[in-house]
Amino acid sequence: MNDKAFNAFAMAQAQFDKVADFLELDAGTRELLRDPLREYQFSIPVRMDDGIMKVFRGFRVQHNDARGPAKGGIRFHPQETVDTVRALSMWMTWKCAVVDIPLGGGKGGVICDPHNLSMHEQEQICRGWVRRLARNVGPVTDVPAPDVMTSAQHMLWMLDEYEQIHGGKYPGFITGKPVGMGGSLGRTEATGFGVIYTVREALKELEIRPQDTTASVQGFGNVAHYAIRLYQQIGGKVNCVSSWDQQDQISYSFRREAGIDLDELLGITDRFGGIDKAKAKGLGYEVLPGEAWLEQDVEILIPAALENQITGDNAPRISEKVKIIAEGANGPTTPEADKVIEERGIFLIPDFLANAGGVTCSYFEQVQSNMNYFWEKDEVLGKLDVKMTAAFIAVSDLARKRKIYMRDAAYVIAINRVAQACKARGWA
Ligand code: NAD
Question: What number does CATH give the domain 36-183?
Answer without folding.
Answer: 3.40.50.10860
